[in-house]
Specification:
- The complex is a heterodimer of chains A (about 110) and B (about 240).
- Chain A is about 70% helix and about 0% strand.
- Chain A has about 110 residues and is an all-alpha fold.
- In chain A, helix 1 packs antiparallel against helix 2 and helix 2 runs antiparallel to helix 3.
- Chain B is mainly alpha-helical and about 240 residues long.
- In chain B, about 65% of the residues lie in helices and about 0% in strands.
Chain lengths: ~110, ~240
């Protein structure tokens, strides 16, 4: 049970760190990383919730299924947000991501 | 109009401790909640074990994922597709796949590892019926194979024809939706699989979803629409809104 609580608290700590960084940092890349760390904390808590000690019966499959789909969805959302951040960088004058990077704009953008 | 803003907005010195206080308070509250959570209980594992025989698979996680919470999984596969559509409509992929002088070590590694990853992905999808494994794990491995090819900058992903690539991306959601509608027609409820074909239907859905998830993850890693694409080849100079000649 102690291991379980430790896992839960570590997940909570990750969530709190991510939440703090989400508010405190203005850089979009840092914000994206912060949200990822928050979601990692939530997944960790879910996995720890499903855990049963050896011999105490089967694991709870429902949180496991949630985490499985959640990881893939969080990866895809991260990728989309990163592409969006790149577009913001390309089209605006804010030096958000890479400093001094020349915009390599393809001349014709189809449809 | 050019707006120059400072890259780093500094927090007001009085606000940062307030934020810290807020986050600490929230953490303490959540820690309290975690502390009072009932731990010894069995959760929903008893209910799942009761219905396991009807689900068509013997792995409880797959049963929950594909059968009991099938609606959820259907929408999540759609979310992946939406993310790909969003990324593709924003930019072109920066990776061209035109590495003219690849190192022989790289080529050999990719040629050995990519088929192996595909094989293990297929095995994981098959294994999902009775043990840990399934569409998402297999799809993640397929995505890993795609990422390997993209990172090596070899023109392997680009050799997949554009139409087949799109078809592969759509395969999972379409098969899942088709099965859902089939269940609606047969049994009267969405995703209430008929008992006779439940095992084979689940395997069909999982295989299709694994292909889609793998392709979606790889194309998300590429970071945009593949270059030399369908659109650019077939109607090179037709602007949006005009009719084809």
């Amino acid at each position: 049970m102690i291991a379980n609580t430790l896992y839960n608290l570590c997940g909570l700590l990750l969530f709190a760190m991510g939440l703090f960084a989400l508010f405190a940092c203005s850089h979009p890349l840092r914000k994206i990383l912060a949200v990822n760390i928050m979601s990692t904390g939530v997944f960790q808590i879910l996995v720890a919730t499903a855990y049963r000690p050896v011999g105490a019966g089967a694991i709870d499959p429902v949180p496991h299924a949630m985490v499985l789909t959640g990881i893939v969805v969080s990866v895809s959302v991260t990728a989309l947000v990163l592409v969006l951040a790149c577009r913001v960088q390309e089209t605006s004058n804010l030096s958000l991501l890479r400093k001094g990077r020349k915009i390599k704009e393809p001349k014709e953008r189809a449809g | 109009m050019k707006i120059r803003t400072k890259n780093r907005q500094k927090w007001q010195p009085s606000l940062l401790p307030l934020l810290l206080l807020f986050v600490t308070g929230l953490t303490a509250l959540l820690a309290q909640v975690i502390y009072v959570l009932p731990t010894g209980g069995s959760g929903l594992s008893g209910e799942v074990a009761q219905l396991q025989k009807q689900s068509g698979v013997s792995s409880p996680v797959t049963a929950v994922l594909m059968n009991f919470r099938g609606y959820d999984t259907l929408l999540e596969v759609m979310v992946l597709l939406l993310a790909v559509i969003g990324a593709w409509s924003l930019t072109k992929a920066p990776l061209s796949g035109k590495n003219d002088h690849p190192s022989p070590v790289l080529v050999t590694a990719v040629r050995l590892l990519a088929p192996l990853l595909c094989l293990v992905a297929m095995y994981l999808v098959w294994q999902g019926g009775h043990e840990a494994g399934g569409a998402f794990q297999g799809g993640a491995l397929l995505g890993g194979a795609g990422v390997l090819m993209l990172v090596a900058d070899l023109p392997l992903m680009q050799k997949i024809p554009a139409r087949s690539f799109r078809l592969g991306l759509l395969l999972g959601p379409i098969v899942f939706l088709a099965v859902a509608l089939f269940c609606l027609v047969m049994g009267g409820e969405l995703l209430a699989y008929p008992q006779r074909w439940v095992a084979s239907l689940l395997l069909l859905i999982e295989t299709a979803c694994a292909v889609s998830i793998g392709l979606a993850l790889a194309s998300l890693f590429a970071g945009g629409r593949p270059p030399d694409d369908l659109l650019d080849k077939e109607n090179p100079a037709v602007p949006y809104g005009e009719k084809k000649p």
